[in-house]
Design brief:
The protein has helices spanning about 25-40, 120-135; strands at about 1-5, 50-60, 70-80, 85-90, 100-110, 115. It has about 140 residues and is α+β, with helices and mostly antiparallel strands.
C-alpha cells in the first residue's frame, strides 16, 4: 500500500549489536508520518482540529537487524473505525527477508480540548480514496 526506505544508524543499535527493540516503533512511526504527509496530513492534524494519539502497539521480531542495513518498511493496510485506525506494518531487509512485523492503533484526539473524538470524515474519505487508487 505504501513504503519507505530506512537505513539503520548507530542510535538504532543496542548493547547486543543489533537493532534495539524500541527502534521498531520508530521505523513504524516514520512510515506512518510519511504516509500521512502523502495525504496532506500529519500526526497533529488529520482534519477537524484533530490529531492522533497512539493507544497500543505490537511488534514481532523475526530476524536480527544490524548497523548499516537498508530496510524497507511497508504499510500493508490501514483499517478505520469510528474513532481510531489500525495500521499494519512489515519490514524487509535487502535480501527481501521479513525482519519485523507489527501494528499500531491510533485514535483521533482533539489536542485543544485534550480529549478523544471521532475520526474526521475528510480523513476517512482521503484514506478510502488512497486505498482504492492503489488496488486499481
Amino acid at each position: 500500500m505504501f513504503s519507505i526506505d530506512y537505513k539503520v544508524i548507530v542510535s538504532d543499535i543496542n548493547y547486543g549489536g543489533h537493532m534495539g527493540n524500541e527502534r521498531a516503533l520508530i521505523v513504524f512511526q516514520q512510515a506512518r508520518m510519511e504516509f500521512l504527509n502523502s495525504l496532506g496530513y500529519d500526526e497533529v492534524n488529520i482534519g477537524e482540529d484533530k490529531g492522533i494519539i497512539q493507544l497500543e502497539s505490537h511488534v514481532y521480531y523475526l530476524k536480527e537487524v544490524k548497523l548499516g542495513e537498508n530496510l524497507k518498511c511497508f504499510i500493508k493496510d490501514i483499517e478505520c473505525t469510528r474513532a481510531s485506525f489500525d495500521t499494519f506494518y512489515e519490514v524487509v531487509n535487502e535480501k527481501n527477508e521479513v525482519v519485523l512485523k507489527g501494528s499500531t492503533k491510533n485514535m483521533a484526539f482533539d489536542y485543544n480540548k485534550q480529549k478523544p473524538g471521532r475520526m474526521p470524515k475528510e480523513f476517512v474519505e482521503a484514506l478510502d480514496n488512497y486505498k482504492k487508487s492503489v488496488t486499481l
